[in-house]
Amino acid sequence: MNKPLILVVEDDAPIKNLITTTLKTHDYKFLTAQNGETAIREITSHSPDIILLDLGLPDMDGVDLIKKVRTWSNVPIIVISARSEDADKIEALDAGADDYLTKPFSVEELLARVRVTQRRLAAMQVDTISAGSQFHNGSLTIDYAAGCAYLGKQELHLTPIEYKLLCLMARNVGKVLTHKFITQNIWGSSWDSDIASLRVFMATLRKKIEPDTDSPQFIQTHIGVGYRMIKVE
Ligand code: CA
Question: What spacing in Å lies between the alpha carbon of 76 and ligand 1's midpoint?
Fold first, then answer.
């Protein structure tokens, strides 16, 4: 895949310079916007492949910008936020952001998030070509038509909820899914009791798919936020 075009939406000059210098050093193409209005103009006229979005903009709340963009575009959005509170991250993810970085962040962390998003974009393209009847991720395979999942050649014996959970994570591979998003998709509600059940089902699913549950290969936990399926290289 070619290097993606990245739109950097950030009003804080030192942080914007850190990000753009990093992108330049790694041969990424980028555009910048220092407020929400300019960001929307750049998105509509240049269709960037990835957006790095600061939540605290001078003219608009970043979460409102995500909601606006999501009415017409699925472009991956990585939120960059000074707010370390989980509630803000969760609000941004529920509004349609794909991932988040909390300030202060390291350059390596920023590049890692961009690579995760690139892999997700590449996986989405492959899915479109193969019409998505099967999902492959490392040794994990889901045969949607047969309703079966395999680890290598071994069929996994999953309960209906574990299977549903695995398919939901797979369909959103690379993206951080909040507890609320997952429980609403699985049970149609998001009570505290659903989130407690989710933890239990996630633990049993992981025992079945992770070779080593102490260093999970497929499903990452984002404490207080949710889970993400990693696209294995
Ligand atoms: Ca700001």
Answer: 20
